User: What shape does this take?
Amino acid sequence: MSPRSRSAPPADCKYCFPAEWERHEATWIGWPHNATDWPGKFAPIPWVYGEIVRQLARGETVRVLVNSTSHKQRAIGVLKHAEADLSRVQFFQIPTDRGWTRDFGPVFIRNGDVGAALVAAQRMARARDVIGRPQGPPLRLKSGRSRTAGELAVAGFRFNGWAKYRNHRLDARVARQLARRLRIPFVPVEVGGRDLVLEGGAIDVNGRGTLLTTEECLLDPEVQTRNPGLSRSEIEAVFARYLGAQNTLWLGRGIAGDDTHGHVDDLSRFVTPRTLVLCRERDSSDANYRPLEENWERVQDFRLEDGSKPEAVPLPMPSPLYFQGRRLPASYANFYISNAAVLVPTFNDPNDRIALGTLAELISGRPVIGIHAVDLVWGLGTLHCLTQQQPATE
Assistant: This one.
């Protein structure tokens, strides 16, 4: 597959989407309440969330969506038993249908001249291996407010229940409601007069101008079609304009058992601006073997925003995991990079140790911590699916 041309961001591009490893002000989660996501297995799920919040709160504020006062009190009870630092937990009473905050929650973007911001970020990153806060002149928004480049906005992608589930009305309102509560701009993302449908788990970025996604999720014209009629180039133009990603890399299919139809966060992730991990299956009889090998072949032709070739590191797959006869999307790629640690789903599998060791070698400055996810993945998602980062502005 030939790499996409690496043009500069379009002239009207005023935003950029920071990489996950940049410093967070907070992590957002939605406290679990929909037992139909884990039928017959809901009881242990709040306790898994309790451990996740305990680990997150060591390095940042955790902002928790709850449906009601009683829902909040149940969450507090679990968090106290989990010995989470409640002084770093904030609750927002905003009703949800489900708890998969990655997909319906706010995609936080930074205001500013992205062309200048990316150049400045690359210069600082070469010196410090982190991306600094973009600097630049105040940006005049449509509302008339003057905001400094680097401050946050929410990208207004539309959520339609993964083009599959009908009960998504509450989830679809969350991003706009949170932008209002946080008093930051909500930027509608439109193509041809209609809102673009996109879930957070469908994309991953290196923070320098390159975005990773899959054809199965965003280009399939027949199954779970998010944006009927939109072409590859039209979707890439949206990524460039609203996320500052002028370079889109397309993988093919996602993993078996994934009911999102190809989310990239179960498949491949950036771990540094120049390095990505990609799941590989060694058992040639497994359903994941051929799709993952085809993706590995594609990666060999990938190029980053500056024309260089990314380093691709294989990440193992756990043995197939089933519950009630259904293949589950168990994947180590669904890790989450928080301020204080890298949280990685584990599955009581011999490859747990290999996955944790691989990520520990690649991601410096943070301990890599395994979170037991055998129960959690029955909801068809794990750690990255239920978290959403809010980048720091200072």
